[in-house]
Every structure is written in structure tokens, then in C-alpha cells.
Amino acid sequence: MSMTKKKDGAALEGSKALTKKARLTDTNLLLLITVVVFVVMYAGAMIFLKKGFLKPQTFFNILNANAALIIASCGMSIVMITGGIDISVGGVVALVSMSCAVYLDYQGGNVFVSLLIALGIGLLFGVVQGYLVAYLDIQPFIVSLAGMFFARGMTTIVHTAPFNVANEAFVALKDTRINVPGMGTVNKMGNYVNAYVEIGVVVAVLTVIVLFCVLRWTKLGRSFYAVGGNRQSALMLGINVKQTRFLAHLLCGLLAGIGGYVYFLHVGSGSASHATGMEMNAIASSIIGGTLLTGGVGNIFGTFVGVLSLSTIQNIVSSIGLDQAWWTGITVAGMLCVFLVVQSVILARKK
Amino acid sequence: MTKKKMVFASRQIFIPIAALLLLALFNLAVDPSFFKITLGRNSAGDPVLTGYLMTILDYGSEVAILAIGMTLVTAACGGQDISVGAAVAIAGSVILRVLVGIGGDGTLQAPIIVGFLAACVVAMLFGAFNGVLVAIFNIQPMVATLILYTAGRSIAAWINNNELPIVTDKTFTYFGGFIPGIPIPTPFFLAVICIAITLLALRFTTLGLYTQAVGINASSSRLNGLNPVFIKWLSFVILGLCVAVVGLIKTSRLSTINYSVIAKDIEMDAILAVALGGNVLSGGKFNIMASIVGAYVIQFLTTTLYKFNVSSDALPAYKAVVVILLVVLSAPAIKDKLMGMVKKQKGVG
What is the pLDDT, as a whole number, of residue A14? Predict the structure, then answer.
């Protein structure tokens, strides 16, 4: 009896020691850096720039504008954790919003079916790309490059000119605002204005929570890390590597579809130039959020913070008065550069 | 005979040449006028050859020049540079800045060669920056170049203070158009010069061998006394040089620049050219000639699609289908299956 107790105790201690030792894994260290950078940046903006940054609504606006990017970046992170990459997400988002827009406007269709269309397109891209990458062993970069080309081209084939959707049910859904209690401010007229988020933000936050749990506590989630960390040893551990990679791309495609619909909900129009460069922003957010390109390391919560950091710095740059278009590009690139170098230094230290 | 055939079929250059023949046959079957070349006169009254084939030679040369550098980068680093389009914008912007300057009246302030050399230096510096990230910091090439991809066009706009300088000098248009008296587009000659230099370099220096060795196994090549960091870095600098040449051609075509549109998506074409050339995208063995043929194949495809009134926006969709077909056919799993089928047939016969 006491033996077992002792054993249990030892095991407990062992696991405690393990968690203690594992407390600052690469994943957590990179996550910590990201969170600190974001908090410092936002706090700095609040102190030195004041203006809008003191209003909670500014923060919620960042969320509103980037809900789709958050969802797409989550998918990107998962693929990157397994050691792949998917640069088709921006194209898929554009294709989804154009297809849904055309369906809603010309067919007078209902909103629910348009959502199904979005999911279908995302799944289709995920399945095809996943099959090519996982089972035919073609480089993910080339496959998703073709995917991006295809999605962008199809978008203009579906409809060329950009247009706004007038479907009533959809517009009602688009304009739905969810008030955030206790975060409102008093405007110049002396009226109390409620802080609000759009539906997309709720979807994005739910996605982040669900995926965080999946990656942390499910067998599938752990096998993503295993496959990304070392494919050979994952195979020896009995993980179905091909299936895991397939599922990662499938999930990424599906999330791109959901992200596309959220994007569509935010902008309410279809256009071939929607979400240009979103794939690059998604990759940048994942990297800033601490996902290693080599695979095996990453965190969905980090990706979420990564998106926030990316858009916060853009907001800061434009509110400093450097609002010429080029400054945004240069600051984002600079930030990306710093994070990449930090990552590489951390990796080198480990070696 | 059959043995010879099999040897040729297993060679790398077979894939792009087969694709080229296929496209040519398709065009011949649908509309033979595709191959018509007419001798006309351009707006300046000089004799020029026009026709779809000339368009392919003209625009394919840009991709071909980039494919040279891209092949080396792919072979040495096992990844691709996605910033070449943005780097072309920077190079073009530098040329215009040196030749006309901010607020210039369009007359040349400096000889064209000075502008070109300045662009070479700047493009090589940016190539070196990418090279440092990849070679020293060990960042995946595609992601390291993502930085310049994001910032490049912004930097290009910043160089000229977001103005669009226009060159009025006639001689500047020769590089992207025609030299008076020569009816073949100049970019083709520039491509030939670049290819010749590269082939000579590969023939008489150890560049090709070393690149291949580093690409196949960087750490074992280091143990054999090579310097993989330098070789990787060098491949990016060479790509920078190719970028400067394309920048000259691109700005010369328009006599001005459009920062957000110039050389848009050209990086994708260049990477596709390398892939079509049958080069292993994860590094190692490479064949520059195959990449160059691949570049012209891609332009052939583009021109064919244009001829069938496919809009330039919808073009990528068709390109993607072709690319996927090619890549799937050359995938090891499918190749083995096909080979097995061929063998079975032979066994039966």
C-alpha cells in the first residue's frame, strides 16, 4: 500500500520535475517573447500616443478588422507546425467571398447555404492540397502556389468586377454588433457609446480556443507536433505521418474557408483583389507568434497575439503620421526580420 | 535506338522540351497562324519582327534571366527566393533615380550604364541581405525573402519619393524594345548574354560543382573543405545581378515605373520555370538550361492562353492546372507507377 503510494509520489514528483524543466520549452519561450512585445507595444502606444489607443474600441476594431486573418493564421500555424506551408489561404479567402457574394446577389440565396459554399470551397482546397502534399509527397510550397494561382484565377472567372452584396438577410447579419459590457466610452456629444465586436470576432476567438485545446490535449494535436519535430521518429512511434499531414492541410483549407466567410461578413462585398497578401500576413503572424518554420514548435495562442502585434504596429505607424503606404510595409518587414533572427538565435543556442 | 530514346527520356531537359513540343503541337492543331512572324515597322520606323513567337522570345527572356539565378539559389539552399518581383521594382527604381532623379525633366542626368551599375550594386546588396539571413541565420529561404517581399515595393516607392519619373530619352527604350536596325527584341540578346556568361562560369569554375555539393548535403560539403555559407550567400548575390538586368528591361519597356505592378508575380513564374526544368526544389542537382527552356515554356503557355482571349486576371487559374498536372506527373509516387505500367506492357509484348 505504502509502496504504491510512494511510487505514486515519486511519479508525481517526476512529472512535476518534468513540467518544471519543460516550463520554458521553445514554444513557451517564443510565446513569452511575443506576448511581452505586444504588451509593451500597446502600453507604449497608450502612454505616448494616447489618441485612440486609450479607447477600448480601438482594440476591438483591431479585432474586427483582423478576425479573418486570425482564423486563417491558425490554419497556417497548424500546417507550419507539421513542417509544411500553405500560401493559398489569401486566394481561398478571395474566392470564398466572391462565390458567396455572387450566390447571394444573383440567386437570391439564403445565408446558410452561402456558409455551406464557403466551407465546401475551403474543404475542397484542403483535401486536394493535402492529398498532393501528403500522399504524393509533392513540396507544399509548390502545391499551395498552384492553389493560390487557381483560387485567384477562379475568383475573376466567377465574377470580374467588384460589387457589394445587397441581400437583406446577409446585410442584417453583417451589421449585427455584439456589445461588450463595461467597455464603452462617452463621446464628444456626451452620449455613452457601447463598445462592440462583430460576429466574426466571436468565431475567431472560439476557433482559437478550440484549436488551442486540440493542439494541446488531443492525440491528433500532439501528432502534429511529433510529425513536425521529426518525421522519422514520429513514424517509428506509430503515428500515421501521411494522414497527419493530410489532416493538417485539410484543417488549414477548412479554416481558410471559415476565414473567407468571416472576411466576407466584414467587408460585405466580392472582389478579386480581396485579401491580397493575406497569406504573407498569416505566415508573418505565425512566425511572430512563435511558430518555427522548421516545424514542431508553435502555439495557437501565440499566433493570435502575433496577428494583434502585426496590426497594432500598423496602427501605431499610421497614427504617428507616417501614413505613406510604404512605411507599413517597411515596419512589418522589419518586425518580421527581428523575430526571424531571434528564432534562429534560439535554435542555434539549442544546438 | 530505343535505348538512346530511353536515355534521353530520363534526362532532365526532356521534361520542359516535351512540354514545349506539346504546346507547339496544340497550337499547330488549333490555329497554325500562331507561328506566323511578320516583318513590320514600329512607331519609330525601324524594322521589327512581330508575331506570337516574338512575344514569347521577348517576355520569356525576363523569366529566363531570373531563372538562372533562381536555379542556383534553389540548388544551393533548397528553397526559393520569392522577393525577386519586389527586388526588380527596387532595381528599376534605382535606375530611374540615377538617370532622371526626383523632379527631373526626363532628360538623362547620367549615362545609362551608370544607372544600370548602380542598380546592380543595390540589387546585389539586397541579394546579399537575403543571403545573410539564409546562409548565416539558417532561415528557410522562402521565409527569409518574405521580408523583402513585404517591404520591397515600399522601398522602391521610397527611393523615388513615390514619384514616377519618366525617361524621355530614346536610347533608354532600346533595352526593352528594339535596337534600330535589329528586328529581334533586345531582351532576347540580354538573355543570351546572361546565359552565355553563366554557362562559361559553370564550365570553367567550380561554381556548379560546389553549388550542387552544398545543396545535396551542406554539412558533409563543409567537412570536405567547402564553405557552404559563402556558396549559399553567393547564389543570392548572383540572383541579385539577374534581378538588376530584369529591372533594366522592365523600366525600359515603359520608360517609367509602376511600383505596385512592375514585375508582379514574376517570382512565381521564375520558380515555376525552375520546377518545370525538372530541378529538385529541395536542392542539389540542377540544370540551368532546363530551367531556361522551362521559362520559355511558361511564356509559351501564357501567350497561348492570351491568344484564346483569357483575361490576364483569369490566367493564373489555367496556369495552376497545368502546373499541378506537370508536378503530379513528375511526383515520385506517380512516376514509379507509370514506370511499372510501362514495364508490364513491355513484359506482355
Answer: 45
CA-based nearest residue to B121, from B94, B153, B146 = B94
Closest Cα in chain B, distance from residue A335 (Å):
9
The answer on pLDDT for B191 being more than 90 is: yes
Nearest residue to B257 via CA among B110, B122, B155, B188: B155
CB-hemisphere CA count at 13 Å for A258?
A: 23
Under 8 Å between Cβ of A236 and A120: no
**Cβ B313–A324 below 8 Å, yes or no?**
no
Contact B12, B278 (CB under 8 A): yes
Q: Which residue ranges make up each domain of chain A? A: 29-350
Is residue A278 within 8 Å of A90, Cβ to Cβ? yes
Provide mean pLDDT across the span A94-109: 86
Determine the length of chain A.
Answer: 351
Q: Which of A25-39, A114-128, B19-33, B322-336 has the lowest mean pLDDT?
A: B322-336
Cα gap B80→B43, rounded to integer Å: 40
- Domains present along chain B, CATH in parentheses: 11-304 (1.10.3470), 310-349 (no CATH)
Q: Cβ contact (<8 Å) for B155 and A326?
A: yes
- Nearest residue of B to residue A280, measured between CA atoms: B146
Quickly state the pLDDT bin for B1 (edges 50, 70, 90): very low
Residue in B137, B147, B162 nearest the CB of A333: B147
Task: Tell me the nearest-neighbour CA distance from B171 into chain A, angstroms.
Answer: 31
ipTM of the complex: 0.75
CATH topology of domain A29-350: ABC transporter involved in vitamin B12 uptake, BtuC (1.10.3470)
In order, the DSSP letters of A195-223 are EEEEHHHHHHHHHHHHHHHHHHHSHHHHH
Of B158, B282, B320, the CB nearest to A149: B320
Chain A residues in contact with B268 by the CB 8 A cut-off are: 145, 149
